[in-house]
Amino acid sequence: MSYNGISQQVVSLFTSLRKLHQQQSSITSHRKKTISTAIQAYGFLCHVEIDLIDFRKLPCNCSNHHNWVLHVQDHFTKYSWILRLKHKETQEVASSLESLFWMFGFSTTLHSDNGKEFKSKVMTDFCAKHKIKQVFGAPRNTSTRALVERAHRTSKEHISNIIKELGLSPNNWCVKLGEAA
Ligand SMILES: [Zn+2]
Asked: Ion ligand 1 — residues with CB under 5 Å?
């Protein structure tokens, strides 16, 4: 009798421990899933910063008359793309970004300053279409900051210096940038 009683207690204890273990393992696997997702969220094309650089003082000589440069930088790898623009119109910014993202993949987050070409409906729609989260505030990429700070002095000599530093020539910077991009 007593042996049978102990046996039943052991069985019920074993059963309740099993249930507890199952609950714990489901919590553990849930946690594991969350952690791995968080790690995956930080990598190439997770956080891309964009910035416009003014080249109006030195328009290119090609038939497209590029006046602006869109600097696109992946925050994780620091990899940069330089896209030439005719104007800093939101449609041109969005379509240039779209063709770039089709080649390399769409970014999860797009970080720009509060410029109207980035906050427009065209850009909001573009980001919604490709499930890109927009973040506003001064981009942190250092190479653009240095270029922009110098471009803000807006004298033709300063832009010429940037072009020289980049190893480009004033007349065909556009072609050379196209090759570099
Ligand atoms: Zn050009």
From this structure: 60, 62, 64, 66, 174
For ligand 1, the distance from its centroid to the CA atom of residue 171, given in whole angstroms, is 10
- Cα torsion angle, 151, 154, 156, 158, sign: negative
- How far is the centre of ligand 1, averaged over its atoms, from the C-alpha of 175 (Å)? 6
pLDDT tens profile 80-135: 888 889 999 999 999 999 999 999 999 999 999 999 999 999 999 999 999 999 99
The DSSP annotation for 112-173 comes to E-S-HHHHSHHHHHHHHHTTPEEEES----HHHHHHHHHHTT--HHHHHHHHHHTT--TTTH
- Please, which residues have CB within 8 angstroms of residue 113's CB and are 6 or more apart in sequence? 51, 136, 137, 138, 139
State the distance from the centre of ligand 1 to the C-alpha of 56, rounded, in angstroms: 12
Task: Quote the ligand 1 centre to 33 CA distance (angstroms).
Answer: 48
Determine the distance separating the centroid of ligand 1 and the alpha carbon of 65, expressed in angstroms.
Answer: 5
pTM: predicted TM-score of the whole model, two decimal places? 0.65
Token output for 101: 């993202």
Please give the distance, rounded to the nearest whole angstrom, from the Cα atom of residue 70 to the centre of ligand 1. 13
Please give the backbone phi and psi of residue 80, each rounded to the nearest 5 degrees, phi first: -115, 145
